[in-house]
Design goal:
Length: about 140
């Protein structure tokens, strides 16, 4: 079994704010991340696909096709966007990295079979800052 990864980059604005709670409670929970007028991050997304190489190509997945897929289905929908306001699949959800990575998994997992017969989605890693990241393995 081999693990092949592709890193993509995007930037986006958000705020961490639970509308069912008071403003005071939001500030208590999220501090400056609850700032009403948004803040931004430079995100890195690392997508790892696992599988055995296709005997015809030697690839688990063609990384050019994987990059095109990630960009078309995910990056184009969130890059230079406001995660709370502009992104259909984040509507009604807290704009945390945790919630975002679960939605990205759902989308990529659904589309991956269109580019590889041998690879399965193994993990996602989403860096919100160089020091803070979330990983998801689909469960
Ligand atoms: Ni933030």
């Amino acid at each position: 079994m081999l693990y092949v990864s592709r890193k993509e980059h995007f930037n986006a604005a958000h705020k961490l704010y639970n509308p069912s709670l008071s403003k005071e409670r939001n500030v208590e929970l999220f501090g400056p991340c609850a700032n009403e007028n948004w803040h931004g991050h430079n995100f890195d997304l690392i997508v790892t696909v696992k599988g055995n190489p296709d005997p015809e190509t030697g690839f688990v997945v063609d990384l050019k096709k994987l990059s095109t897929l990630i960009r078309a289905e995910v990056i184009d929908k969130i890059d230079h966007k406001n995660l709370n306001m502009d992104v259909d699949f984040m509507r009604g959800k807290l704009a945390s990295c945790e919630n975002l990575i679960v939605e990205i998994w759902r989308i990529l997992n659904e589309h991956l079979p269109t580019i590889t017969a041998h690879g399965k989605l193994h993990s996602l890693r989403l860096y919100e800052t160089p020091r803070n990241y979330v990983e998801y393995y689909g469960e």
